[in-house]
């Protein structure tokens, strides 16, 4: 009889003859979802199947409400606990589960009108997370679980009466524990885990009443550690439970092998809270809006850049605490960023949006159910307010601080036509809840009355687009990790805190560079010091791109952001063509045509021209903007037409996008 693949361990039957195992991805088992209460009913659709799979919905008010306690809903009957109290289980949160998320009742704990909330949903899945309940025996015992790997963190709570939360973590001894509802440091107590390390099938309990009193009822939330089970081959890790020790400056670098989206960490030697951060609320280089699992305190800024995701882990900088955390040990739980699936349709990763300014504040609906990772905005009327140029055509991304948590406070903005450093002001764009965003007008042109705007919204996804932040070293042959999973074909890099550096653009098919903040041709001039080892050019790979010692890409101590694009079948195409002087169809392999087209002449000077379906790619008039200047959009030219496979370029004297024998680079998105 042939061996069979096992669920959660592989994505295919390696030996034949069995039923293939369906791959698992982090976006199918975990979600951070932001919402605003309405004191009525509402459905949260996070595309996680709770009603048939089971799991945990963890909700916390971000702003002051009638009750600020955490709500941990672990059953579809509305049962809930609070991580910040010793209270027993309560019935009455009213939360019910469905196959695509959960339903909120008219209830103050989770749905008070006008209050902002964060929800973290953990779906049961081998190698990731499990929920187990039992009745205590009062004697040493073992509890079976379905994690399919050795538990790395176990949070236990008595449910029939009051009792403190007991936490096991693999980085502690099996005679030690932490208490989730307090700030206390590690304690010793052999009667919690019976001095026994968990196995892939059971965990052990002693006789302490907080975990195993005779007749008492209990629940445990169980987290895996680097157990594989995910991705196309079933070998990718999506959750890690580890430890780190800060240096003398209260800083630490942690390697996970992936980029996290959610992080909980706690000091073990001194008294301090259980910090909870995530990328939806600002975990990154901007404001780190944190909550504490042990406290009902509302969300607060823990300090810019205190928890920074990297392509392979995260950095911690707690120096804002004045040395309090110097040389201190911590334990953590980290969850991988998604999506892990390669997109198959362009509408799942890109959306152009147009709107008219109103001179105040307004919420712009994206019409999509995915969060934005990158926004490129543009005032279609041109003539930007020179005093706030970076606000007038912002390039904002989540990693640099797309969302700050303060109404009207934008994340760090860059402008494609300028070498200026990034700037944050009170007139800007901010994420508003889960998918939509808010625009404000104070002194800039992001929402000026009587003016028209277009915004391009991108989602990071394998094989499509990635965002990377790094700090320069000035040393050639510097390798920068990324998570595109394929070799990027277009790399766009900008210094964040140095206003003298250009926007450097690498085309891997040409092995040449240019800049967006200008119309110059692509060339090999300085290629090796921008993207090489100062002697030769080094092509990017599926995991890294290389920068030389030049200031535009790797000046010592200067911070940078890079945007990486690649061809993704049916979704995006990075390519080139040679003009024929009349009209030609550019086949991108699409089925419903291109909704976004960026074209740049490469053999000579030429603007970075952008058209999109929101403003119209139609016969007769195809409005386009030029990323390298502040001009108003050009209208009245029939330079670009639709085609189901991609797009059609026509030679028109104004745009010159199909000049005979000229060569062009393009990025198209379906």
In what range is the share of β-strand residues? 35-45%
Helix content: under 10%
Provide the gyration radius in Å: 26 Å
Strands, total number: 49
Total of DSSP H or I helical runs spanning 4+ residues? 7
Please describe the structure with a list of short key phrases separated by commas or semicolons:
36% strand, 6 domains, 7 helices, elongated, disordered N terminus, 4% helix, six-stranded antiparallel beta sheet, 670 residues, mainly beta
Structural notes for this entry:
With 670 residues, the chain is mainly beta. It has six domains: 30-123, no CATH class; 129-223, no CATH class; 239-336, no CATH class; 346-458, no CATH class; 465-565, no CATH class; 572-669, no CATH class. It is built from seven helices and 49 strands. The strands form twelve sheets. It has a six-stranded antiparallel beta sheet with strand order 1-9-3-4-5-6. Strands 10-17-12-13-14-15 form a six-stranded antiparallel beta sheet. A hairpin with a 7-residue loop joins strand 14 (176-179) and strand 15. The longest helix is centred in the first third of the chain and has 4 residues, at 50-53. The protein is elongated and about 85 Å long. The two termini are 46 Å apart. Residues 1-17, 386-391 and 403-409 have low confidence and may be disordered.
């Amino acid at each position: 009889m042939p061996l069979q693949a096992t669920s959660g361990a592989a994505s295919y039957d390696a030996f034949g003859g069995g039923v293939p195992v369906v791959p698992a991805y982090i976006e199918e088992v975990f979600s951070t979802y932001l919402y605003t209460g309405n004191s009525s009913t509402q459905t949260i659709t996070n595309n996680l199947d709770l009603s048939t799979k089971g799991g945990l919905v963890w909700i916390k008010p971000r702003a002051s409400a009638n009750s600020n306690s955490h709500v941990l809903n672990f059953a579809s009957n509305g049962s809930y606990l609070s991580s910040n109290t010793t209270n027993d289980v309560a019935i009455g949160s009213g939360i019910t589960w469905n196959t695509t998320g959960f339903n909120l009742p008219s209830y103050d704990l989770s749905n008070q009108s006008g209050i902002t909330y964060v929800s973290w949903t953990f779906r049961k899945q081998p190698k990731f997370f499990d929920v187990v309940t039992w009745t205590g025996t009062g004697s040493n015992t073992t509890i079976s679980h379905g994690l399919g790997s050795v538990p790395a963190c176990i949070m236990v709570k008595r449910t029939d009466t009051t009792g403190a939360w007991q936490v096991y973590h693999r980085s502690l001894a099996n005679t030690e524990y932490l208490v989730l509802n307090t700030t206390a440091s590690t304690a010793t107590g052999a009667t919690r885990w019976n001095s026994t390390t968990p196995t892939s099938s059971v965990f052990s309990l002693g006789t302490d009443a907080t975990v195993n009193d005779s007749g008492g009822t209990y629940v445990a939330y169980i987290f895996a550690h680097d157990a594989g089970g995910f991705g196309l081959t079933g070998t990718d890790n999506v959750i890690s439970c580890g430890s780190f020790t800060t240096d003398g400056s209260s800083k630490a670098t942690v390697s996970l092998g992936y980029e996290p989206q959610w992080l909980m960490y706690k000091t073990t030697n001194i008294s301090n809270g259980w910090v909870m951060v995530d990328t939806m609320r600002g975990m990154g280089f901007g404001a780190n809006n944190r909550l504490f699992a042990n406290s009902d305190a509302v969300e607060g800024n823990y300090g810019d850049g205190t928890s920074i995701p990297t392509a392979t882990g995260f950095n911690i900088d707690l120096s804002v605490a004045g040395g309090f955390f110097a040389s201190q040990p911590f334990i953590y739980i980290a969850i991988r960023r998604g999506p892990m699936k390669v997109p198959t349709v362009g509408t799942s990763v890109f959306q152009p949006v147009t709107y008219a300014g109103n001179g105040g504040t307004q919420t712009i609906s994206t019409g999509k159910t995915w969060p934005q990772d990158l926004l490129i905005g543009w005032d279609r009327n041109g003539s930007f307010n020179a005093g706030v140029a970076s606000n007038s055509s912002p390039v904002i991304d989540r990693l640099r601080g797309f969302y700050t948590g303060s109404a009207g406070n934008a994340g760090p903005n860059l402008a494609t036509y300028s070498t200026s450093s990034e700037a944050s002001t009170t007139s800007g764009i901010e994420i508003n809840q889960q998918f939509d965003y808010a625009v404000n007008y104070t002194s800039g042109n992001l929402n000026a009355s009587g003016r028209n705007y277009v915004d391009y919204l991108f989602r990071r996804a394998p094989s499509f687009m990635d965002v990377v932040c790094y700090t320069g070293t000035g040393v050639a042959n510097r390798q920068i990790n990324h998570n595109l999973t394929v070799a990027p074909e277009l790399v766009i890099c900008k210094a964040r805190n140095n206003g003298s550096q250009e926007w450097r653009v690498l085309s891997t098919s040409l092995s040449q560079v240019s800049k967006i903040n200008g119309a110059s041709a692509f060339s090999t001039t300085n290629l090796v010091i921008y993207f090489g080892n100062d002697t030769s050019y080094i092509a990017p790979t599926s995991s890294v791109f290389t920068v030389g010692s030049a200031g535009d890409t790797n000046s010592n101590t200067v911070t940078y952001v890079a945007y990486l694009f690649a061809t993704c079948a049916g979704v995006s195409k990075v390519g080139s063509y040679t003009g024929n002087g009349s009209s030609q169809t550019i086949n991108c392999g699409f089925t419903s045509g291109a909704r976004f087209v960026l074209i740049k002449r490469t053999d000579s000077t030429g603007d970075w021209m952008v058209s999109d379906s929101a403003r119209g790619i139609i016969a007769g008039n195809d409005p386009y903007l030029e990323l390298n200047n502040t001009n108003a959009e050009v209208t009245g030219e029939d330079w670009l037409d639709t085609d189901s496979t991609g797009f059609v370029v026509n030679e028109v004297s104004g745009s010159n996008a199909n000049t005979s024998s000229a060569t062009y680079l393009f990025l198209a998105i379906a």
